[in-house]
Predict the 3D structure of the following.
Amino acid sequence: MKLPLARRIWDSIVLRGPVIPRTDRDRAFVTIHTLLLHLRPVKVPARAIGFTHTFGLGGSSAVLLGLLVVSGLLMTLVYQPAPGVAFDSVVRIERDVRFGTLVRAMHYWSANLLVLVVVAHAARVFLTGGYHGARQFNWVVGVALLAMVLGSAFTGYLLPWDQLSYWAVTISTGMLGYVPVIGERLQHVARGGADIGASTLVVFYTTHTSILPALFVAMLSFHFWRVRKAGGVVLPPAATGGSDDEKVLFVPHLLVREVMLALAIAAVVVLLGAAVGAPLGERANPGMSPNPAKAPWYFMGLQELLVHVHPVVAVVVIPCLAALALVLLPYVTADDEPTGTWFQSDRGRRAAGWGALVALVVVPLWVLAHEFAAPHLPAWRGAAAVVAGLLPLAFVVAGGLAFGRFVQRWHVLRRNEVTQALVVLYVVGFAALTAIGVWFRGAHMALVWPWTR
Amino acid sequence: MAERRRAFLARMWAGLSAVAAVQGGWVTASFLRPRVVADGAGGLFGAGAVDRFAPGTVTAFADGKFYLVRLADGGFLALHRECTHLGCTVPWDPEQQRFACPCHASVFDIHGAVVNAPAPRPLDTFPVRIENGIVKVDTSQRQRRDRFDPSQVAV
């Protein structure tokens, strides 16, 4: 007796089991037999699904990335990557394409939020110690993903080809010229030539829409895979005999939470896009630089640093040291101290708090001091290398070490807690530089109050 | 006997794979290297008759991305309009007789020499030739310099 046609079609699509599970057995079944869900665990520790343990930052990054892909793909159907027509095609998205303004604004807001969220995610992983043991290499993969997010944001920044993008990219690639020996060659590779032009736009467009997305698919899959291999989110060691070992089904307990968060993020992006929109300046004019010409906000920390220290220190030494420190972090920290608790302990939290406070005080003071001391600084040949190069570098390194020693003595900390305080010190310091660069620099990059910009 | 054969074949696989990887990398790197294309107008730029330019004046050429400077003593300098700090286009201020960059306040004098930091070196120059009374600027040859030198002026 053959089944009805509709039933046979349905059965061929849904091979086995119910689509909507109603029993616990079915819920476990659905997790294993659905493509999108089979990467997830059937059961998760009950302690792992609390919102304040991870704030869902990793998942939020993935959601934002999904929004970027969808809005981005739509725009590639209209955008034209050539200097003479790029700006006009963006105007066309804004004016002629239905919902074009909203799609472009959602892309803009998702991109900016993504940079913030992945940094917050990295901070959460760091502060809960989720980079030890089986998670060491996944931290390195995460650092690569962070670099890719910044690369995507940067390459996308040029595409509208307005005054803001053209000169922001000029400035940012201009910084590359200060790399010793290979600087000019690096600049030529980044720009596709000596100046920003048609080659630059094609290279940036292809990197932004093809190369980086392909890399994301590969790297993100590997990143999720390694989380599963490590047993999921990092947790504090389970207390014996207690309820710490309790596990709950992924469907529905974690899945519903994740879907809710994803919908909330999508709603925020739509609202921001509709309410605030995305900026579009005047058509790019290579003959006229705007005043001031600023890099995108996530690079403003570097541009601010460039005001104070020798270019080689700001563009090469400090970024290379920071990248090296990030990549080597799991391998130079102690592997045998407990993990899973935010800040590791109350003492760790206090030490980290001191690191943040010191950074928030020292950095603005240093910026102000330099502002008033600048006219009186020596101008002999080589002065820049010493006064603006070696001295600030020595101060930053020695200052960090002194702070580390001091806080360890005072609070009696474990090694990882000292490292944590130091990392917080430097990261908050860089965040302060970024804030100053974004809000307190006006025409000619002079220090101004934000409301007078 | 079989062991030796296996070891040999394994070494051949490893060696040839390495060669293939190097070849692939070299082809890709070569492909991505930017072609050397002349700047702006791409070659010799005829700026005009010598008498068109009064001594002590600066004339902007947007197409060639340079300024033609005629110094008080009659000599010519062709200055690239890109600020040597981070690449902004530097406008000429005739009242103050200087180039003042709007981005980070670098200042250059009429020779293109640095008056005010943060520019690290003078404005780049293009070679200037005067043939049959016509001023010609070779925009395909950008020249860096540490400081201004009278030998850089064309007469």
Notes: The first helix of chain A runs from residue 5 to 13. Chain A touches chain B at residues 167, 170-171, 173-175, 177, 188-189, 191-195, 199, 286-293, 306-307, 311, 443-446 (CB under 8 Å). The mean pLDDT of chain A is 92.
